[in-house]
Amino acid sequence: MSDTDLTVVRTFANIVHAELARSALESAGIMAAIRADDCGGMRPHMQMAGVDLLVRTEQAEEASALLAADQDPARNDDAPK
User: Fold this and answer.
1) Structural domains in the chain plus CATH codes
2) How many CB atoms lie within 10 A of CB 73?
3) Is the pTM higher than 0.70?
4) Residue 76 backbone phi and psi in degrees, to 5
């Protein structure tokens, strides 16, 4: 990412969920980064404060909407009918 302001769009309980969300955003063309205080992955138990998903501030609203839509079963094509 270039020099720009970053905004936390969501905080996850673990790195796995954060990586899945990052992947979803990047597939939609929104660059995202993960910030976790876990000693570079060496101490995953230190993620107790959460794992932040960051995007450019100008893309934060779009990213939040995409993540919210991903959580809404009514908008999920794979939801049972």
Assistant:
1) 6-71 (3.30.70)
2) 8
3) yes
4) -90, 120
Which DSSP symbol is given to 20? H
The C-alpha R_g of the chain, in whole angstroms, comes to 14
Nearest to 67 by CA among 5, 59, 50: 59
Q: What is the DSSP letter of 78?
A: T
Q: Which strands form 51-56's sheet, in the order they lie side by side?
A: 6-12, 51-56, 32-35
Residue among 13, 60, 73 nearest 33 (CA): 60
The CA distance from 64 to 55, in Å, is 10
At residue 49, the pLDDT reads: 72
Which residues of the chain carry a pLDDT beneath 50?
1, 76, 79-81
**Are the C-beta atoms of 17 and 71 separated by less than 8 Å?**
no
